[in-house]
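Q: Hi! New to this. If I give you a protein sequence and the SMILES for copper (II) ion, can you show me the bound structure?
A: Yes, paste them in.
Q: Okay, here:
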Amino acid sequence: MEGIIRGVVAALFIGLIIMGVLVFAFSFATPLKMFQRARNATSSPERVVVVERTIVERTETQVPAPQPAPPAPTPAPIPNSNAPFVNVPTPVPTPMPGPTPAPPPSTPVPMPPPAPVPPPPPPKPTYSPTAIGTSAVNPKTGEVVKMDGTPVNNTIEPGMSDAPLVSNPVTKDKYPKGAIVISITAEGMTPNTFTVHRNEAVTIVTESADQYTHVLRFKDSSLNAIAVGVGAGEARAITFNAPSEIKSEGYPYFCDVPGHASRGETGIMQVQ
Ligand SMILES: [Cu+2]
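A: Thanks. Here is the predicted structure of the protein with copper (II) ion bound:
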């Protein structure tokens, strides 16, 4: 048994040796044949060229051409410790826009019904002053009124907007119809008494019949707003509502220029 194993191992060993010899011979046989063929076929210089070309051909077929070396990596810049420090801002990442909200469903919005337009108020009658500048009289009520139709105020200070208006200077031919004309001189007032009806519209024309200025006024506070001043030879009118109260002593009037009443420029208006 042992002899058989030794025989097999020896056979394998011999076989390996034979295979190695065959591989070696085959590897060198071809170049040697080519070298001998070139040596026999050409003269000496040509043979050298052929040998060299053959060697080059074999080298080119066996050894690949050297590839160009890859470019050397660029060295990282060495920070210069002496260079000033530059603060490079860190790029802020741009926030990505969120998803666009879907538009709300287009539901038809009911339009509110149009508000009813109130009818325009009736035009308010305006009461412009008369041609000479006195306050107007409401033809329906016979009341002396302001431009807005409200009654004038007899108790406020003269000259205020609610007081009866004093006219511009007027001549005799422009005296209002039915007016009571009171002529004033240093000697007194003419007439020094007259009578009106309560609540009626009364127009008084005050004349300065001399070279003095005169101012007609009433003592009673209920007629405080009635005041007409006239220059020398001038005449002005005023229209006001007569008092509603009847007083036995009447409503005294006078010239408000200092010293004029004491010299007789006085009178009394009676209301009935
Ligand atoms: Cu006077």
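A: The chain has two domains: 2-62, 136-271. Let me know if you'd like me to explain how to read the tokens.
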